[in-house]
Design goal:
Distance between the termini: 33 Å
Structural class: mainly alpha
Strand content: under 5%
Largest sheet: none
Oligomer: single chain
Helix content: over 70%
Protein name: Slow myosin heavy chain-beta
Number of helices: 1
Number of strands: 0
Order of helices and strands: H
Length: 31
């Protein structure tokens, strides 16, 4: 189902975002 697929994609994006936030916090101070 499309909705389920969007859910999975969203959680993957959130994981990536959290990862890049961890990396960014060490270098660039981004919100």
């Amino acid at each position: 189902e499309a909705e389920e697929r969007a859910d999975i994609a969203e959680s993957q994006v959130n994981k990536l975002r959290a990862k890049s936030r961890d990396i960014g916090a060490k270098g660039l101070n981004e919100e």
